[in-house]
Design brief:
By secondary structure, this protein is mostly helical. It is 78% helix and 0% strand. The chain is built from 11 helices and no strands.
């Protein structure tokens, strides 16, 4: 209990420092959103009496306000409106129309509509604040490291406790085994790409993470995640000329996925 309260206090302190950092550099808000998404402390916010203050929502709103304020102060209103943003807005309008016209439970439908609107808002912030390859690379690595941490926790749980489909490994968003496995599977293409990086630390780190991540997907027994990896391997085989040794390794990995 004592260690739990220390952990909760530490997470809240890091959260507050992160929000302060967003005021100085709005880009930090993106990193805060990702970390809050992966490691939502759950009971810590109830302990602090902040049930209505969702960390992801706070980071999103603070980041948006600070970014707009910074642009106004610098007098450089440069806002990106990608085509995908309008597609997402059209999808949201279709969801709202279907909710008004044919929803069996409008309250639940509006909750999903609100969640989708928040995703659109986060997407809008991401495409406007990730303005360089270096920033994009940092975002990818933070996502990969978060997934790698959960994959290692899943492998550890499998070795020590036996077969449990990795339930409740994720802190909040990925408590379900299927959700966790699908998220882990999305990082494998990036890890594979970084295995050939010219930077030594990226090559070493990606090689260390790709195998526990793949193994965690296998033991999760998620058909959706398995299909993700199968199609990823097929695309790699079609788009890249591989050495015979690497080709054999990929075929064996694909066969293992299909067996599970």
């Amino acid at each position: 209990c004592f260690m739990g309260s220390i952990r909760a206090s530490l997470l809240i302190a890091i959260f507050i420092m992160g929000v302060v950092g967003v005021v100085i550099v709005p880009y930090i808000g993106i990193l805060g959103i990702i970390l809050a998404f992966f490691f939502l402390p759950g009971t810590a916010w109830y302990m602090a009496g902040m049930e209505g203050m969702h960390p992801i929502l706070i980071f999103t709103v603070v980041t948006l306000v600070c970014w707009l304020a910074k642009m106004m102060m610098d007098r450089s209103m440069s806002i990106v409106y990608p085509r995908e943003l309008f597609i997402l807005i059209i999808m949201l309008l279709m969801m709202i129309c279907s909710t008004i016209g044919a929803a069996y439970s409008p309250k639940i439908s509006w909750e999903w509509n609100t969640e989708f609107f928040r995703l659109i808002l986060i997407f809008f912030i991401f495409v406007n604040l990730i303005t360089s390859f270096n920033r994009l690379n940092i975002v990818f690595w933070i996502i990969v490291l978060c997934c790698g941490y959960m994959a290692i926790q899943g492998c550890r749980s499998y070795v020590l406790e036996g077969y449990s489909r990795l339930e409740h490994i994720g802190e909040g968003q990925f408590a379900d085994s299927n959700e966790l496995a699908c998220m882990l599977a999305t990082t494998i293409p990036f890890l594979f790409y970084k295995c050939f990086s010219k930077k030594k630390w990226e090559k070493i780190l990606s090689n260390c993470l790709i195998f526990p991540t793949g193994f965690a997907v296998i033991i999760a027994s998620s058909r959706a995640a398995s299909l993700q990896i199968v199609f990823t391997v097929i695309l790699i085989l079609l788009r890249k000329k591989l050495s015979p040794k690497l080709l054999i390794l990929l075929v064996l990995f694909l066969g293992t996925i299909l067996l599970f």
